[in-house]
Amino acid sequence: MNEVLKNYSVLMSVYYKENPEWLRQSIESMLNQTIITNDFVIIKDGKLTKDLDDVISEYYEKYPDIFHIIELESNVGLGPALAIGVEECKNELIARMDSDDISIKDRCERQLEKFGEQPELDIVGSSVAEFIDDTDNIQAYRILPETDEEIKKFARRRNPFGHPSVMLRKSKTLEAGNYRSYYLIEDYDMWIRMIEHEARCYNFQEILVFMRVSTDFYKRRGGLKYLKSILKFKKEQLHNGFYSKKDFVISSCAHIIMCLMPNQIRDLLYRKILRKKQNKKGRIHEKENKCNYTT
Fold first, then answer.
1. Residue 121: which residues within 8 A CB-CB, separation 6 or more?
2. Where are the alpha helices (DSSP H) in 132-223?
3. Which of 47, 112, 116, 190 is deepest in the core (most CB within 10 A)?
4. Alpha-helical segments (H) within the chain
């Protein structure tokens, strides 16, 4: 096996509002991989609760050769915390993981195999299933574009990756400038800068990660703070030439409408239009999503 593909790092950021049990489930899902990591990097983004600290300490004491814990004095936010983590990861390939999501057992093995099959790749993600409380309680599926060409076209209107599903190259991430502070869109910002640095991309169409969503998940995709962040981001992409004027106008108008509408209506639109639903037989509806203009 290629030396680069023998090992991979896991990168996770944790802050004080996280749920200790969900954190435990997330860590376990990565430790139960068919190919286990030799470098599990956890960033403590500021002071944590005792329960969260206890969970992290438990795993560090059990696997001191695997876990690498970095404690930040104050909360710096997801983007800056991940930027520190990327620098600390010792392997070229980094599997991102959120502290409340769950990976299927062969997620990382399949991603490593894909990097082996296509060594030119820099980002490998997958479609994700959004759930509440338990993975049997699926709310919707986010089915993402598969090929490099499809992903780059999709990225001009919407975020082309499920952040906790990606495995990415450290060298290309650093070449593109690493993660930045960008409210709720740290990942989208990272992908576009990597694409601008000629990153090659792929998404498995299968579900490799279950992404936890709370009852207020879609509520956070609204409000003036998020709107200001996303419009600033879109103006930057227009200025850089990544967005055409048409891309900018269509996606910006859609976001303005989505951010300013009542929470209940936004929730309905995300669940019924911007995601695929499961039918009574447990299958994902095959009808293609036609609304391609919001994250």
1. 114, 115, 169, 200, 201, 202
2. 148-154, 170-175, 186-196
3. 190
4. 20-31, 50-62, 78-88, 107-117, 148-154, 170-175, 186-196, 224-240, 245-260, 263-272
CB-based contacts of 59, cutoff 8 Å, min separation 6: 27, 31, 40, 67
Q: Mean pLDDT of residues grouped by 10 in the chain (295 residues)?
A: 80 97 98 98 98 98 98 98 98 98 98 97 97 91 96 96 98 98 96 98 98 72 84 95 95 87 70 53 39 33
Please answer whether residues 19 and 25 qualify as being in contact, where contact means their C-beta atoms are separated by less than 8 angstroms: no
Name the strand (E) or helix (H) holding 96.
strand 93-96
Tokens of residue 141, six digits = 């599926």
- pLDDT score of 243: 95
Distances (CA, A) of 257 to 157, 169, 221, 223, 250: 15, 36, 11, 11, 11
